């Protein structure tokens, strides 16, 4: 928990607040993936759709327009 908080504060120095918050909120993807591997959780179509939407949202926030 402390390491995550430290990394978040350090990311605020390099990224806009909105982008840093969106990226840090995507930790749920890591939890979903690890629970699928180690706890044999099922991957329903809603979980897969949510994962794709989260990845798409973070990608849109990270995309720099010229």
Task: Explain what this protein looks like in three dimensions.
This protein has 66 residues and is mostly helical. It has one domain. Helix content is 76%, strand content 0%. Helix 2 packs antiparallel against helix 4. The radius of gyration is 14 Å and the shape is flat. It starts with a helix and ends with a helix. The model has no long low-confidence stretch (mean pLDDT 82).
Summary of the model, kept short:
This protein is an all-alpha fold and 66 residues long.
Q: Helix and strand string, N-terminal first?
A: HHHH
The count of domains is 1
Class by alpha and beta content:
mainly alpha
Rough outline: flat
What is the helix tally? 4
Radius of gyration equals: 14 Å
Keywords:
4 helices, 66 residues, mainly alpha
Give me the secondary-structure topology.
Layout (H helix, E strand, L loop, with lengths): L1 H11 L4 H9 L1 H12 L6 H18 L4
